[in-house]
Amino acid sequence: MVKSVIVAYALWAAGGPLGLHHIYLGRDSHALLWMLTLGGFGLGWVREVIRIPAYVSEANQDAQKERKRYPNTASPSISPVRFAGQVCVGIYFGTVALIGLNSLSFFYLIVLPLCVGAGVHLVSSVGQQTSDLQKTLTACLITSPVFYGSTLSPLPISLAASIAAAQHRRFKPPQRPGSTQELGPRLYKLGLAWLAFSAPLGYCIFHNTTATLYYLSDCVSALLDIFWFLPWLRGVLEYILLMPYRILCALTGGGYYEETWKRLLEILLKEYTEREKEALQVLSLKSEASLEDINRSYRELAKTWHPDHNPSKDAEAMFVKIQEAYEVLVRRHRPDRFK
């Protein structure tokens, strides 16, 4: 089926960073690259304003006519843009691997170079070109031990892989008429590839949700503290931060999601009540204390002030105070606090 430039531009405008126009044109490698990088980090998506007509011509097999001008052994010309893209995406894939997969055995020897090599090969396979995957991965595996354990290792590994991919670049074999796969299987393969990329990263983010929230809490709190001398501006910023919660309440009318959002925003804004602040002082805790910190402090203080072990006259009163403070702080960390 002949592809239309107008349709390609419409899909570029509607979902270009997700690669919709590349799926339409049968450029699945390019579409996957755009899905994983949101349109080449935005820069590639903008550049395609002038590139779409050429992509449509390739999809309509005009590029096959151009290729006949060259011998079968000819290689595509080196593209500085493609080479830079290989290096950047290789580093990007390596960084994602460092975030989500660094706990795996032999990470720096096997996992990291394979991830970097996959990113480099993905860029080298965009359009009518491709490269030798085996030689690209070999370059990664050889380079990786030299920079073992370094957080900067994705850079040299990506450079080595990009050089290997550039040296072994070639044209893709021409497709026979009618050999294009149906849309369903293509989308299935793209979905599996996207899931393989995003699942480890998503697991890492959700696994470290508590640490992430407290980090955001510190950032938001520091931002609001800057405007202590302008209460009205601080109030405006706080209102903006609470806007997603208010919108969600208006749409859902409350329930579990309201409680979850309220819990999340309360952590972000550090809206401790006076009673909770007193409880933190009783247990000698800081505002960012986790549930494990609360339990540990409570056990230590309860053991010290328990009337059966402490003969002091104030022991019983202090023990009750510790018990109440513990219940206040534990209630704050429970999902059903707002019921």
Automatic annotation (TrEMBL):
PROSITE patterns: DNAJ_2. The keyword Membrane applies. May function as a co-chaperone. It is a multi-pass membrane protein. Its main location: membrane. One of its GO terms (cellular component) is membrane. It comes from the Eukaryota. It is found in: Membrane. The lineage of its organism: Eukaryota, Metazoa, Chordata, Craniata, Vertebrata. The keyword Ligase does not apply. It comes from Anabas testudineus (Climbing perch). Keywords: Membrane, Transmembrane, Transmembrane helix. InterPro entries: DnaJ_domain, J_dom_sf, TM2. Residues 278-339 form the J domain. It holds the Pfam family DnaJ. This is DnaJ homolog subfamily C member 22. The chain crosses the membrane at residues 6-25, 32-50, 83-101, 106-126, 187-206.
